[in-house]
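[INFO] parsing input record for Transcriptional regulator
[DEBUG] input buffer:
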Amino acid sequence: MDTRFLESFIAIVERGSIADAARQLGLTPTAVAQRVKALEEQIRQPLLVRAGRTVTPTTAGLAIIEKSRVLIKGIEEIKAIASRNEFAGELRIGAISTVLTGILPFVLRKFFQDYPQIDLHVTPGQSIKLYHSVMEGQLDGALIVEPPFSIPKTCEWKRLLSEPLILLVPESCLETDPLKILKENIFLRYDRKQWGGRIADAFLKENRIFPREQLELDSLEAIALMVSQEIGVSLLPDWQPPWPEGLKIRKIPASPIPPKRHIGFLCLRASPHFRLLRNMQNTLGNRNQ
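[DEBUG] output buffer:
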């Protein structure tokens, strides 16, 4: 089976039309249609249903689409392994929200210049889910909060930056003692189910503080906006800018030597893209030195 037939089939399903798929592949619509026809003849099943300019997969088409994507990705990875001096193919990276805005935009331009043959897909998410996606092979790597346990030896981990824990208060708050503020104000809690939120929770327990809490969520930007609106105070990592604009807040160190949330890059050593992922680690590390 010619893998180009599968590539054309995938492109049509993703684009929803033969004309759009042809433009993506740099072919004529006739050539793309002929490829799919040849694929249908080999499989002996109709794979697409045409209704005017719109094309949708049949039941048989839906049944093979994911396997087709995996097959094409595998072939691209084989090509990348065989070519030691050139990286090519698809690279899937996960990233937490503050990394998406505070780190990635400042390194991607150079990355694309250095690796023009790489098709990069970035998946946003929470550290816990992204960690498991890397371990299960669904992602090649991820920029996440450092796990609160030992990272397996099958993985490569590089710490990129550390963010100290701060007390976020409204601009109108004149008190400077963080422990007193936490005891006397409504507390907006950074989600304890997340690794970053556990750092704040541990700080509260160590200082025997049981604040009046009315809200718990996993969105640092949303919490900062709520503090600005004088809804309450919060313990958060002092994440990389940008922060939401127009905030009326003050940042107070949680303690003289505050605990920190560590951000790093995780990938599997057995990944076919391991050398490329290591290069990406170094690029990210240089950005934060």
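[INFO] The two ends are 49 Å apart (CA to CA).
[INFO] shutting down worker
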